What we know:
By secondary structure, this protein is mainly alpha-helical.
Amino acid sequence: MANNRLSDLIHILVYIELHDNQKLTSELIASSLNTNPSLTRRMMGQLRKANLLETTQGAACPKLAKNPNKITIFDVYMATCPDSPLLKVDQNTSKECQVGHIIPTILNKYYLEIQSTAEAKMRRITIADIADDVRMDIAHHQKNSDTFAKI
C-alpha cells in the first residue's frame, strides 16, 4: 500500500505558504487535510525536525523555515524519514525457479534507476512551484464557480 505521508507534508507546507502570517491552528490545517489535529501536529513536528517549518509553542502561527523557492519536494521526502526506497523488490521468491532466483536482482537494478530519476525530479520541484499551481487553480475555480470554500 502506498504511503501518503509525503503528500500530507507537502500539503501542510503549501497551506502555510498560502496563509502566510495568518493564525493557523492545527485544527484548521487538519481540516484541510481531512485528518485529526493530533496527527497534523506530529507531521508538523517532522517538518520542524527537518528544518522546514518553524513553530512557537502556544502560538498558532507556523511559518516556513526557508523561502518556498528553496524547499524542494526532495527536502520534504527526506523529512518523511524514508527507511525504504519508493519501490520495494519482493525478495521472497523461489530460489529453485530460474525466474524466481534472478528476478529480485534484475528488478533491483531497474528500481534503483527509477529511484534516482524520481529523486532528481523531486530536487527540481519546490513548494513555491506547487503553491503557485494551487493559487492558479483556486483563482480559476473562484472565477468560474462557488464550489470550494475560501482557502
